[in-house]
Design a protein that fits this description.
Elements: H1 7-20, E1 23-28, E2 31-36, E3 39-45, E4 50-54, H2 57-66, E5 70-71, E6 82-85, H3 93-106
Antiparallel strand pairs: 1-2, 2-3, 3-4, 4-6, 5-6
Length: 112
């Protein structure tokens, strides 16, 4: 099991964002997560060990179609602006965290 497949691995990747910006630790649906200005942009799914990131719906679709992400569908309901990035793709976690932070910071997002 790689370090990225643990919650500690998630926090290790998130640490630069926590140090350098207004990002704060939080929980989303009982999962450890990250917020900026009160809005969630990332989380760690303890069940699947995937990174969850909030991105534009089109970008999420692109990641899913390319095989770089899975839909995030807790309880069978797909969240169109959330992608699940498996730990075997952990090399892209930092870039996707940055992308999600930029997306949420730049847009007044609401809903799922």
């Amino acid at each position: 099991m790689s370090d990225k497949s643990t919650e500690a691995g998630f926090w290790a990747v998130a640490e630069p964002l926590l140090k350098a910006s207004t990002v704060t630790r939080s929980t989303m649906m009982g999962l450890p997560g990250l917020r900026v200005s009160g809005r969630f942009f990332a989380s760690f799914d303890r069940r699947t060990t995937a990174l969850l990131v909030k991105l534009p719906a089109g970008r999420v679709s692109e990641l899913i179609q390319s095989g770089d992400a899975e839909p995030f569908a807790p309880s069978g309901r797909r969240f169109r602006e959330w992608a699940a990035i498996e730990p075997d793709r952990s090399e892209v976690w930092p870039a996707l965290l940055d992308e999600a932070l930029a997306f949420v910071s730049a847009h007044d997002v609401s809903g799922d």
